[in-house]
Design goal:
Elements (H helix, E strand, L loop, with lengths): L5 E5 L16 H13 L3 E3 L28 H7 L20 H21 L3 H13 L1 H16 L10 H4 L3 H10 L1 H27 L3 E6 L8 H5 L14 E5 L9 E6 L3 H6 L3 H11 L4 E4 L7 E6 L9 E4 L3 H11 L4 E3 L7 H9 L4 E4 L21 E4 L8 H7 L2 H11 L6 H11 L4 E5 H4 L29 H13 L5 H19 L3
Parallel strand pairs: 1-2, 1-12, 2-3, 3-6, 6-9, 10-11, 11-12
Antiparallel strand pairs: 4-5, 4-7, 7-8
Length: 519
């Protein structure tokens, strides 16, 4: 993947401001893209965009193909005539620096169901035609997902392994009966996906017009309680009752002394290989239809993955089992072409992982917060970066840079100050400048670091089952002063778009020529 020197910001859409308790794909998202354009940033990185379940994690979605209805903009639905002002009369007062997911989900689904009723009773033939076309185009995943969500809602929201046997096992007669009796509920789920897709693609096109590419995220594993597992049980290590035999995680590491027990079911890779990785190819293509570049989370798992016996309380006990390795990426490249993939190669990385990454010319990741625990030879220090990498101050799993510094051991803080040649007073921006100076082709930081926010603004605490994914950007956070500061940083370190670089260079040449002309 050819890369030019560029920069970007990591900000999940849920963190945008807005009136409905959660960021969405409406006016504030367009304002955000305008901000990126003014700063000279060329990338907007997001987390997975799917419908979240227990714990509200975008890494534990009800589908690897669907979009989150909670991201749908009510404002746009109002402008489209799919809602009326009366429909919003009971809008609650939501906090604007935190997502309170319970009330948000209740409110948004109530309003989205009203929009669906208006749609069904309306006369918008064009929209109806587009909906029919969308259902046909996406039917491979959409129909089973919509059914899955309708069954889940009908049965009170419980996981599919607790459903009645006939629905849990997807017996044809039971499924057909449910579809006939609950056709409207299934149709509404398809409608929400249609509206999400429409709003997202409009926003993405606007970003492209501004020269901004979107970096998405594919978690290697899917949630157990998902349409993906319910429909494709043979692709996972499940017992005869549909329960996992082993689950995913990582052994003790930087983030946790007991490892991380993710609990996702593990792939039966031999079955995937027998199908030519058909499910994975569909998944990769679906995400690449939504974003321009993909961060492949837990890249290590494609070489070998940590398998924990089902029922364990921690990830300490487990074993490394082989993943699909080179064969997987060979097939994906053969079927989909060049791979616009960032390899999340953090943690315990073996020679085999490096070999796969390098053989397919995939850039790996560097995290500046990890750099100060050892010495000047540390791979995460900017002077040791290769050009072909993507460097971050931190990710969604890290503390904010200010929060990291406030909590770091004094030895690490001292090394950090000495390395950056700064006092530590403006630590987040000092780290940003160091990263931007590096030879890394692409550099990014979470928005929290550009705002110099402390630990309270952290997005996720790995290992904590609740209290994550809630941070939202204050409505007044974006301002001209911040835009100018970031633009200046992009200019100084050669990370502006090429056309803007050329325009500035030409203006400088003309200015110099004007100064040297004889009077």
């Amino acid at each position: 993947m050819k890369q030019n020197r560029a920069s970007g910001i990591l900000l999940h859409p849920t963190s945008l401001p807005g009136p409905d308790g959660i960021g969405d794909l409406g006016p504030e998202a367009y304002r955000w893209v305008d901000f990126l354009y003014r700063t000279g940033c060329q990338f907007w990185q997001v987390l997975p965009l799917g419908p979240t379940g227990y714990g509200d994690s975008p890494y534990q979605c009800f589908s690897a193909f669907a979009g989150s209805p909670y991201l749908i903009s009510i404002t746009i639905l109002l402008d489209q005539g799919l809602l009326t002002k009366a429909d919003l009369a009971e809008r609650p007062e939501f906090p604007f620096e935190r997502v309170d997911y319970g009330p948000v989900i209740e409110w948004k689904m109530k309003v989205l169901n009203k929009a669906f009723k208006h749609f069904k009773s309306g006369q918008d033939a064009r929209l109806m035609s587009e909906f029919v076309a969308f259902k046909e185009q996406e039917k491979t995943w959409l129909e089973p997902f919509a059914t899955f969500m309708a069954v889940k809602a009908h049965l009170g929201g419980g996981p599919w392994d607790k459903w009645p046997d006939d629905l849990r096992k997807r017996e044809p007669k039971a499924l057909e009966k449910f579809k006939q009796e609950h056709a409207d509920e299934i149709e509404s789920q398809s409608f929400f996906q249609f509206i999400f897709n429409q709003q997202w693609q409009d926003l993405r096109e606007y970003a492209h017009q501004k020269g901004i590419r979107i970096i998405g995220d594919i978690p290697i594993f899917v949630a157990y309680d998902s349409a993906d597992v319910w429909v494709n049980k043979e692709l996972f290590y499940l017992d005869k009752d549909g329960l996992p035999e082993v689950v995913a995680g990582v052994p003790p590491d930087y983030f946790s002394v007991t490892g991380q027990l993710w609990g996702n079911p593990l792939y039966n890779w031999s079955t995937h290989k027998d199908t030519g990785y058909a499910w994975w190819l569909r998944r990769m293509q679906a995400v690449l239809n939504m974003v321009d570049i993909v961060r492949l989370d837990h890249f290590r798992g494609f070489e070998a993955y940590w398998a924990v016996p089902y029922g364990n309380d921690t990830a300490v006990e487990g074993q490394w089992d082989p993943g699909p390795g080179h064969d997987f990426f060979r097939v994906v490249k053969e079927k989909l072409g060049e791979l616009p993939i960032i390899a999340e190669d953090l943690g315990v990385i073996t020679d085999g992982v490096v070999q796969i990454r390098d053989d397919f010319n995939l850039p790996g990741m560097k995290i500046l917060q990890f750099a100060f625990a050892s010495d000047p030879d540390d791979d995460f220090l900017p002077h040791n970066y290769p050009r072909h990498c993507v460097a971050y101050t931190g990710t969604h799993d890290n503390n904010t840079s200010r929060g990291w510094y406030d909590n770091a051991p004094e030895r690490e803080k001292d090394f950090c100050r000495r390395y950056l040649a700064r006092s530590g007073q403006d630590i987040a921006w000092s780290m940003i400048r160091s990263l931007w100076q590096s030879v890394a082709d692409w550099v990014l930081a979470p928005m929290q670091d550009f705002l110099s926010l402390g630990e309270w603004a952290r997005m996720n605490y790995p290992g904590n089952p609740s209290g994550n994914w809630g941070w939202r950007m204050h409505p007044d956070a974006i301002n001209e002063g911040l835009a100018q500061r970031l633009h200046e940083t992009n200019y100084l370190y050669g990370r502006l778009p090429q056309d803007e670089k050329q325009a500035i260079r030409q203006a400088l040449i003309e200015e110099m020529e004007g100064q040297t002309m004889p009077h």
